[in-house]
Design goal:
This protein is mostly helical. The N and C termini lie far apart (74 Å). Helix content is 84%, strand content 0%.
């Protein structure tokens, strides 16, 4: 193992020496590293003073973690220049052929570039954060807990790995430095949006949830590294001279994968959709287990944490809440608002939202949104139990009728999105990232159009037209489940 890593260190030392000679990177990096902490400190004080004039009552102490996160981010944006030029820059300078002609393996070339690309910006970010903390300590400001600083440093390191690994992937796939630099916006903007969510968690003060953000960023960074290793081919770097956006080829390739070997509509269901479902068995089983675990955690969390809120109410108030929950007029009023088009388009919108975030995060954010949806059921059942209403009645009458269609639709959609990430990080010799991505998107489209949308439509019809009546009958006679269906059908007539 030591001998196989030796070429990686040699290449990394060469890359580090070249970066330290490049004044285009060193000059702005030094200015940001040394000057930005002072600027951030001044801006924070001015923001607090301005907000307090109008009753904002901001505390400088709460801005320290936010400032640390921002200060660690900006040097990374400058350092992306070196990572974006790591391969395509050498190709333009004519030095890529001797490098690729060395006996180094593909993974050694990739890790050598990655190591230097991560080390330089990370050292700069940590140095800038250190300068800021020295400034803050002299201003009589209460510092956050040690755990918060550990989270901030881990987030900064995870951001560095995430951004640099993505930049190297773009450098491998680009044919010119100009094209690679233009792709930098697809790295900086998503990470900036991700930091907004992390900032909300910092101001919220929930350190446990912030650990989840750390884990998510680290997982995405690891998947991007895996993506680069899976699709790095030195022949691919030498064989392309220009990128062409061939929309006709993309449409033709997508349609070929989407149609498959089917010759008719029903044949498409039997052959193409069936073949896709066979590919999704692993993601489906994984998501099924996660749904059960997430629902169970939410159920026990609601039992343990919501009891304190319930104890704050008087017995008369709890009785009133219970009456409102089981009052038939309230259920009917909600049913009048939940029309079939509203429910259907809402569920389709949620499905597309999960797909959107999942496709940009190798399915990680999609899985999180999926778990939020499934965990709500467990939390709701736990809350119902605290109100002394039989939770089994709510599940059987209020969730199961439409849930047997809606939950599988959500599961299939998220499994198809997760499959895109799994396919992308799986090595496939002789195929480009574009071909692999188009096939995975075609599989997702098959599942959504062939199964998810029909299931969501059926679920919307049942949830709007049948579930409210069944739930009303169940609340009227919770101990007589045999009469629920007869009562519900009589009501529908």
């Amino acid at each position: 193992m030591k001998e196989s890593l030796r070429p990686v260190w040699l290449l990394a030392r060469r890359e580090l020496r070249d970066q330290l000679r490049d004044w285009r990177i060193l000059t702005p990096l030094a200015i940001l590293t040394l000057g930005f902490p002072f600027l951030m400190n001044a801006v924070a004080h001015e923001a607090v003073a301005f907000a307090n004039q109008y009753g904002g009552n901001l505390i400088v102490d709460r801005l320290v973690p936010f400032s640390v996160l921002v200060i660690g981010f900006f040097p990374l944006t400058i350092s992306l220049l070196g990572a974006l030029e790591s391969f395509v820059g050498e190709k333009e300078r004519g030095t890529i052929e001797p490098l690729l002609g060395t006996p180094l393996a593909d993974w050694q070339l990739y890790l050598g570039k990655l190591l230097v690309g991560i080390t330089t910006p990370l050292v700069s970010s940590l140095l800038s954060i250190g300068i800021y903390l020295v400034i803050v300590q002299r201003q009589d400001i209460n510092m956050p807990d040690t755990a918060v600083f550990v989270q901030l440093f881990m987030l900064t390191a995870a951001h560095a790995v995430l951004m640099v690994s993505a930049a190297i992937v773009f450098s491998i796939q680009s044919t010119s430095v100009k094209a690679a630099n233009l792709m930098a916006s697809f790295i900086i903007i998503p990470v900036a949006i991700l930091m907004q969510g992390e900032t909300a968690l910092l101001f919220w003060g929930n350190n446990q949830v912030l650990w989840l953000a750390v884990a998510v960023v680290l997982i995405m960074a690891g998947l991007i590294i895996r993506l680069g290793l899976a699709h790095f081919q030195r022949e691919y770097l030498l064989g392309r001279e220009i990128d062409v956006l061939n929309i006709r080829w993309m449409a033709r390739t997508f349609w070929k994968y989407f149609k498959g070997d089917a010759r008719s509509f029903f044949g498409w269901y039997r052959v193409s959709v069936g073949a896709t479902l066979k590919k999704l068995w692993t993601p489906i089983l994984l998501l099924g287990v996660l749904a059960i675990v997430g629902g169970g955690i939410a159920y026990f969390w609601s039992l343990g944490n919501l009891q304190a809120y319930m104890d704050a109410y008087e017995p008369e108030q709890l009785d009133e809440i219970q009456k409102q929950l089981i009052h038939t007029d309230g259920i009917s009023g909600v049913a009048d608002q939940l029309t079939v088009p509203y429910l259907f388009f809402h569920n389709v919108q949620s499905t597309l939202l999960i797909a959107f975030f999942g496709m940009f995060s190798f399915g990680v954010l999609g899985v999180i949104l999926y778990l939020l949806n499934t965990s709500i059921i467990g939390g709701l059942v736990g809350f119902v139990k605290l109100t002394e209403i039989a939770p089994l009645t709510i599940v059987l009458a209020g969730i199961v009728p439409h849930g047997i269609f809606e939950i599988p639709a959500l599961l299939l959609s998220c499994a198809a999105v997760l499959n895109i990430g799994l396919v992308l990080v799986t090595p496939q010799a002789g195929r480009t990232i574009g071909e692999v991505l188009l096939e995975a998107l075609a599989d997702w489209a098959r599942v959504v159009l062939g199964l998810v949308i029909p299931l969501l439509f059926v679920a919307a019809v049942i949830e709007s037209q049948f579930t409210p009546h069944l739930l009303t009958c169940a609340m009227a006679a919770p101990d007589a489940p045999a009469t629920w269906l007869m009562c519900a059908f009589d009501t529908l007539r």
